[in-house]
Amino acid sequence: MKPTDVQKLFEEALEARQNSYCPYSGFAVGAALLAQNGDIFYGCNIENSSYGATICAERSAFSGAISQGVRAFSAIAIAGGYTKEETLVPAYPCGICRQVMSEFCAPKTFQIILGTSPEELQIHTLEEILPYGFSLSPVP
Ligand code: THU
After folding, report:
1. Which CATH homologous superfamily contains domain 3-129?
2. Are 40 and 33 in contact (CB under 8 A)?
3. Rounded Cα gap, residues 36 and 44, in angstroms
4. How far is the CA of 92 from the centre of ligand 1 (A)?
């Protein structure tokens, strides 16, 4: 991806973060998932008073895409930080979200973009952040 496209995708994640529902943690996350067809799917964390029912921003974006029949992805940008603070923190995806990515995304080419501003970003491949992930072959 071109550096400007990386920045743009992160800006979309920042927009998605505006919709975060996080009254319990105060940590707002937004995600912008770029499909190979060019479409972007947005996600935010949606918390619940029964904490385990919370869904992360990344999985919320994947759920939207898969539900609409899209299964081929190039990259995801993630923006996270405490709502009471102005600054973002590098929001690495949690283990469950990494596992969900591994179901649909190519380990060597899928890009995970995160950072503290559109000018301060890091890019990782899925393989880098999820080495030795679990997988099963689908039943023939
Ligand atoms: N969260 C995400 O949205 N994505 C992650 O990968 C890690 C954590 C959310 C869940 C919860 O609403 C808040 O951040 C604090 O854990």
Report:
1. Cytidine Deaminase, domain 2 (3.40.140.10)
2. yes
3. 21
4. 9
pLDDT digits (tens, 9 = 90+) for 26-67: 999 999 999 999 999 999 999 999 999 999 999 999 999 999
Please choose, from the candidates 64, 60, 73, 58, the residue with its C-alpha nearest in 3D space to the C-alpha of residue 105: 73
Determine the Cα angle at 101 with ends 97 and 107, to 5°: 130
List the chain domain ranges: 3-129
Would you state the torsion angle of the CA atoms of residues 25, 20, 46, 31, taken in this order, to the nearest 10 degrees? -110
CB 103 within 8 A of CB 71: no
Digit-coded pLDDT (tens) for 2-13: 999 999 999 999
> Which of the listed residues 14, 54, 83, 114 should we mutate to test ligand 1's pocket, taking the one with most ligand atoms within 8 A of CB?
54
CA of 42 to the centre of ligand 1 (A): 15
